[in-house]
Structure formats: C-alpha cells, structure tokens
Write a structure and sequence with these properties.
The complex is a heterodimer of chains A (278) and B (175).
Chain A: H1 2-10, H2 12-31, H3 33-43, H4 45-80, E1 104-114, E2 123-125, E3 138-141, E4 144-152, E5 157-161, E6 169-173, E7 179-183, E8 191-198, E9 208-211, E10 223-231, E11 238-245, E12 254-260, H5 263-277
Helix pairs in contact in A: 2-3
Chain B: H1 2-22, H2 39-43, H3 51-69, H4 74-92, H5 107-110, H6 112-135, H7 141-166
Chain lengths: 278, 175
C-alpha cells in the first residue's frame, strides 16, 4: 500500500495532467456538436456499417418488384408521349438542278438506343425501311462520322458505330494526303486507331483525319478525328496512329443518314468490272 | 511574491480578453493563420512555478479562451498540454549552469535565440494539438499541417513582439 502511494506521489503531476486532459476532451466532446458528431460517428462506424449493409440487402431484394412497377409506369407514360408516334412523312431534302446531279442526301434520325462501353457497340435510330433507309448507308452527326447502317426493320435501323471493333473505314490525313484505315481497338470510346498509313507519309500531330471519298458510304471530307499520337514500329512499313474522335459518342441524340443516290450505279459498275477481270 | 501573482493574473486576464475579443476576429489567409497570443501568459509563468499550479493555470486559461469561442475543452486541453510540457521544455533548453534564481523565461533574461526555441517548441505543441482536436480526424492532413505551421509562425512573431513591448526602456526589471 505504501509503495502504491509512493508511486502515485511520484507520478502525481502526470496523473493530474492526464485527469485534466481527459476532462477537457470529455467537455469538448460533450458540449460541441461537431466534435460530438465526429466522435459518435467514428465510434459507431461498425454499427453504422452493419446497418447500412442490412438496408442494402433488403432494398436489393425488393428491387425486382420496384423495377417492374417503374417499367410499367414508364411504358404507359411513353406510349402516350408524342415521340412514340412515328412520323411516316419524312422526306429526303432533294434539290432539283439540271447542271449538278445530287449525289448525297441526308435524312435526320433520332438515336433511341446507344451504347459506348462495350466492345461491340451499336446505335439504334428511329428510321427504317419505310423511310427509305437501307443497309450500308453512312450515318453522320454534324459532319462527323458516326457509323454505318447494318440491320434494318420497317421503322428502325441498327447502326454499327465507329466505336465497334468490327468497324473499318477508309480515311485520309488532310495535311499529308495519305490514305489509311480507321479501326477501333475496343478500349477508349474517344480514341481510335488509323492503320495502313505508309512509311513515306508525314503525319502531323493535330492533323485532321477525314473520310477519303473512296468508299460508297460517305462523301469525301467527313470528319473522323484529329491525330493525337503517331509512331512507326522498328522494321515496319506502316505508321501506328492514334486519333481523338470528333464525334461525341457519349451524347449522340440526333444523327443524319447519308443517302448516296448513285450508290447502286457505282457498286454495279465496280462489281461488273471485277467480274470482267476475273 | 504577491506582486508576482497579481501581475500574472492581470496578464492572463488581459491576454485572454485580447485573444477572445480581437485576435480571434482576425481573418487572415482564409483561416490558415490563427494566432494564439494568450499563450504569452503561460510562457511568462515563472520558472519555479509549482507543477500542479501550472497545470491548473493552463487548464483555466484555456477554458476562458474557450468561453469566447464556444468550444469548451478545446483550448483548455491544448493549453493544459503546454502547461504540462513547459517545465520539460525549460529543462531541455536550460543554460549550461541551469537557471539562476529569479530568472524569468523572457528574451531579456535569456536571449532571443533561447526564447525562440522555448516558445517555438511549446507553440508548435499547442497548435498541433489544437487543430487536430478541432477536426478530430487526420484529414485534410496537409491543410491542417499548413494551418499549424502558419499559425505557429504568426503566434511566435506576436510573442516576440510582445516580449519587446513589455520591456520598453522606461520599465526596468520589475518582475
């Protein structure tokens, strides 16, 4: 007992200090909302986390019925909205001229479904066979290449956008006039790759990449993107070029379908000459 | 002896009022600089003050400052910490022959370099505790660290200024 008192006496300053410090901190936590909130918050973190998990699980179990209810409500509202009535009178804006024959015409279409985060992205538009849309037509948005019509129904069309790994299109670099092909590697929906640009070309960073006009889908000079990076691997004959796409695929809402009015004629001629040479 | 006690009480009251009524109103650098001039009073307590008394004075002084800022316990705990460490810091920075009788922890008695290290150490302890207790957590860490450094620096400058103010040539060692 005596040694205990001695011990206490030896450390009495420290003990009083600790006692007062505990008192001060206790007062701080007791009397101040902020500190109290933080203190309770951190000491109750475990309980809070458990509560949160429990709520998450019970909410998750209810999700299906909630979803069904919402979907039904959505469908009802949508079927009453004016957008769900299809206009059947859309016409191409054609121009009559005796000196110039119109080669391309555009038809506006609304994007009703769009994906950007997959490897095989597709866009659905609200124009189809009845509006004169056909397979293999180009789709652009404000002069920027979007994709090519792949499948078609009476009122809708499915467009394979540039950001689909199966997409490929002949392009040229505006400054160096070199030709290549644009592909997409499935990674970043804002970046695409241009391949088959020969070694003698001089790509420039910031140069625009546009449609070449060799393909029957798009008029010449439609924007594809701007060059971000280029390199030529050791011992290769072609550049590896990365371009930043000019089309904001994330936020497409309206697009234009390109009608190549002379497409049939061009294709017919091309296939005929192919047969002749074979 | 009574003179020393009275002088210290007056000093504490004056500095707590100065802190609570004027210095706390300063809004410098978006809250990055918050000087605690009231520490001047605690740093001025005589070298041979009994340690328990020192702790009580530290706690009470801080609690008075808290009364102004409505944060009961915050400055009390910080200033208590300073009061606890003051004798340790004094011993750590003691001159080779120890402190002479009647020597006070001032620039005049022990020199500017000594005062800067003595006050600097205690001010740093005070502000580190104060700002982390205020947050009760470690984030945002670097902003708090900046607050500690800049506020300590500002406090130190004000403390040194105060040292020169109270010892104007007209007022010779009075104690």
């Amino acid at each position: 007992m005596r040694s205990l008192w001695q011990l206490i006496y030896r450390f009495h300053v420290l003990l009083v200090f600790i006692g007062l410090e505990v008192l001060a901190v206790a007062l701080l936590i007791r009397n101040n909302n902020y500190q109290r909130a933080v203190f309770i918050d951190s000491s109750n973190q475990l309980v809070g986390t458990l509560y949160e998990r429990r709520t998450e699980i019970s909410e998750y179990l209810k999700l299906q019925s909630i979803n069904e209810k919402l979907a039904r409500e959505n469908a009802l509202l949508k079927s009453e909205a004016p957008e769900s009535f299809l206009k059947l009178t859309d016409n191409l804006s054609l121009v009559d001229d005796t000196l110039y024959l119109q080669r391309y015409a555009y038809m506006p279409a609304r994007v009703i479904n769009n994906s950007v985060n997959r490897v095989n992205n597709y866009i659905t538009i609200d124009k189809g066979l009845q509006n004169g849309i056909n397979k293999e037509m180009g789709v652009v948005s404000k002069g920027n290449v979007v994709g090519i019509v792949k499948d078609i129904s009476d009122h809708f069309a499915s467009v394979m956008p540039l950001i689909n790994v199966n997409f490929t299109l002949g392009v040229k670099l505006s400054q160096s006039e070199a030709f290549g092909r644009v592909i997409w590697n499935g990674d970043d929906p804002t970046i695409a790759q241009v391949i088959e640009v020969p070694r003698y070309a001089n790509p420039l960073r910031g140069d625009t990449v546009v449609t070449s006009g060799y393909s029957s889908y798009f008029p010449e000079g439609m924007m594809v993107g701007t060059i971000e990076n280029y390199s030529i691997p050791e011992g290769e004959n072609f550049y590896e070029i990365e371009i930043r796409l000019s089309t904001p695929f994330h936020e497409l809402s309206y697009v234009d379908v390109v009608h190549h009015l002379l497409q049939d004629e061009q294709l017919k001629l091309e296939t005929e000459s192919q047969y002749e040479t074979e | 002896m009574i003179g020393v006690v009275a002088r210290n009480i007056v000093r504490i009251v004056f500095l707590v009022l100065l802190q609570g009524l004027i210095v706390n109103r300063l809004d410098l650098w978006q809250g990055l600089v918050l000087p605690s001039v009231y520490l001047f009073a605690i740093l001025m307590l005589p070298v041979n003050t009994p340690r328990l008394l020192l702790l009580l004075i530290g706690f009470a002084t801080g609690a008075f400052v808290d009364a102004f800022t409505n944060t009961l316990g915050l400055h009390a705990s910080a200033s208590l910490l300073v009061a606890y460490f003051q004798p340790h810091i004094l011993r750590f920075f003691s001159p080779r022959d120890g402190y002479e009788a009647g020597q006070r922890p001032t620039v005049k008695d022990l020199g500017l370099t000594w005062y800067l290290s003595y006050a600097g150490a205690l001010v740093l302890i005070h502000h580190t505790w104060l700002f982390f207790m205020e947050l009760m957590r470690l984030t945002p860490f670097f902003h708090t660290l900046g607050k500690i450094l800049f506020s300590s620096l500002a406090t130190l400058v004000l403390l040194v200024l105060g040292q020169y103010l109270i010892y104007s040539p007209s007022e010779r060692r009075s104690g």
